[in-house]
Amino acid sequence: MNVRGVLALAGALFALGAGASERLGVISVADPPGGPDADLAELAHQLRAACRDRIGGVVDVPTMRARLLGQASNATLSELDRAYGGALAVYQNGEFESAVRTLRAIVEDLESLPESDDAYAQWTRALLRLAHAAATIGLERDAQAALLKLARMEPTLQPDPDQYSPGYRRRFEEVKAKVRALPKRRLTVLAEGGSGVVYVNGRNMGPAPVAVSLPAGAYRIGGAADALRVPSFTVDLEAEDRTVVLDFALADAIRVNAGPGLALAPEQRAYGIIRGGAWLGVDKLVVASRVVEGGAQFLLGSIYDVRRGALLREGSVRMVAGSVPAVNLGALASFLLTGQSSRDVKDRTPDLPRQPPAPLIVASPAPVPAPSPSATAQPAPQPAPVTASQQPKRAAAAAATAAGKPAALEGGKPPPASPSPARTVAALGSATPDPKAARSTPASASLAFTPPAISSDSPAAVLTLRPRRAAWMRPTAIASGAAAVVLAAVAVQQGLSASGKSSDADAMVVGDPPTFKSGADPARYYALRRDADAAQRNAYVSAGFGVALAAAAGALGWMSWDRTPEPAVVAFSF
Question: Global pTM?
Answer without folding.
Answer: 0.57
